[in-house]
Design a protein that fits this description.
The complex is a heterodimer of chains A (65) and B (177). Chain A is mainly alpha-helical. Chain A has four helices and no strands. Chain A is elongated. The chains are: A mainly alpha (65), B mainly alpha (177).
């Protein structure tokens, strides 16, 4: 899915969006919010990244792997 | 019992050579350090920390000071494969408006969010990805702290962490199919 970026930014494609998911989660303004709201595949990738973060947080250092 | 989670209290106690403070520091950070570096280097880092604690200033946090000592001991982790988050074959290569969009039926598949998969994949990550993922996602450090320890700018750190998370996501997808 190709979404027009706001404020004159060039359109961003899925192949670029998936490289910016962590920056987006970190709160950086990387201009992919509109794309994520409209693209099912990229929204699913973002949700899966959140799940990866949740699972990884259970690997507390010193705890069992 | 003083609250050693407060860096000012902790530093005061360390400078007094308070055994309880050193024990707390070790209990809190030793396991993470040994995930990231060989035991000999971790042991050497602890010796350096004990020697240099009088020079510790509070412009940084105690844990970033400690892990900077570890980086100085082992060298900055540089291994990073630079792999894309998803296989490029999953995106259309044709020119025009659809270039770079998901191919039909090539979007993210179901994943099995299993901690044993996460642990095994984390252990096999390139060094720099392993350091960043461990500190950020396992131990919950802030991006600023990790940037301080590894001298990584915010955007570069996010890219490294994105590659690491993508590797774990892919392993969980592979396990689900």
């Amino acid at each position: 899915m190709m979404i027009q970026r706001p404020r004159g930014r060039r359109p961003v494609a899925c192949i670029e969006v998936v490289e910016l998911l962590t920056a987006h989660l970190d709160g950086q303004d990387v201009g992919i919010a509109d794309h994520l709201a409209a693209c099912e595949g990229c929204a699913l990738a973002l949700a899966q990244f959140r799940e990866v973060v949740r699972v990884t947080a259970t690997l507390v250092s010193g705890g069992p792997d | 019992m003083p609250d050693l989670r407060d860096d000012r209290v902790l530093v005061d106690a360390l400078r007094r050579r308070d055994d309880a403070a050193f024990a707390w520091l070790s209990d809190t950070y030793d396991a993470t350090m040994r995930r990231l570096a060989p035991d000999d280097d971790v042991d050497a880092t602890w010796r350096t920390a004990i020697e240099r604690v009088d020079g510790l200033d509070l412009r940084t946090t105690v844990r970033t000071w400690l892990f900077r000592l570890l980086v100085a001991q082992v060298g900055a982790p540089v291994g990073d494969d630079g792999a894309p988050a998803f296989d490029r074959k999953r995106f259309r290569a044709s020119p025009g408006a659809l270039k770079g969009t998901w191919r039909r039926n090539a979007g993210p598949g179901p994943i099995r969010p299993d901690r044993s998969i996460a642990a095994a994949t984390l252990a096999a990550l390139p060094d720099r990805q392993r350091w960043v993922l461990t500190l950020r996602d396992v131990d919950g450090w802030t991006a600023a702290e990790v940037g301080d320890v590894l001298d990584l700018a915010e955007a570069e750190q996010a890219a490294v962490l994105n590659r690491a998370r993508a590797r774990l996501r892919q392993a969980m997808e592979d396990a689900a199919t």
